[in-house]
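Methods — Computational structure assignment.
A single polypeptide chain was analysed. Its primary sequence is given first, followed by the predicted tertiary structure written as structure tokens.
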Amino acid sequence: MAQIDDSGGGGHDKKGKKRAKKSSTHVDMTPLVDLAFLLLTFFVLTSTFSDPKVMSLTYPAKPKPEDKIDNEKAKVNNAITFLLSKDKIYYYEGAFKKEPTDGMPATKLEETDFSAEGVRKLLIEKNSFVLNKKVPLLRDLQAGKISDEQMKEELGKAKGNKEALKVLIKTNEKATCRNFIDLIDELKINDIGVMAPVDLMKSEEELMNAKDK
């Protein structure tokens, strides 16, 4: 509350004229402080904080001790494996073959990058099943025929279909965190439903070292 102190001044000067009283204003800040805390509490309780943006990754289940798995002969259907090294991105399709088997040649690594003709173009071509399913869903969503939840549900079914592309990501000790994040972004943009960071096999590392030379 404001208070006016008019105790000062008054009386007469030397010529006998009466002087005007001097008044001073004192403002009590206590109610303003209380109001500030009330407003702060109101905004904290009513504000909506942004949710963190995260991406779910599919990790392979750890094998049981009694399970015998030969990684060199593991079958990978409709999949691409990306191998990340320092400033280099290699990939191969299907299962890894150290040596020619069943009339199929041994695995050879192909090199790509993050240019317009690189990773994105490759993913668009290989994940055409999901992307072709997405086009009519977007059209129906814009026309108001389906809701966001329905679109997400249908798109999720397409991503889980056996025809959808699966991606494995492997890195060596030279790989950079930036390349890994950039690759994850490209997978998200192209609606890859199944992606799994897995351990690099010795045979794959040998091929990478040979390409790096």
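Note: The longest strand covers residues 2-9.
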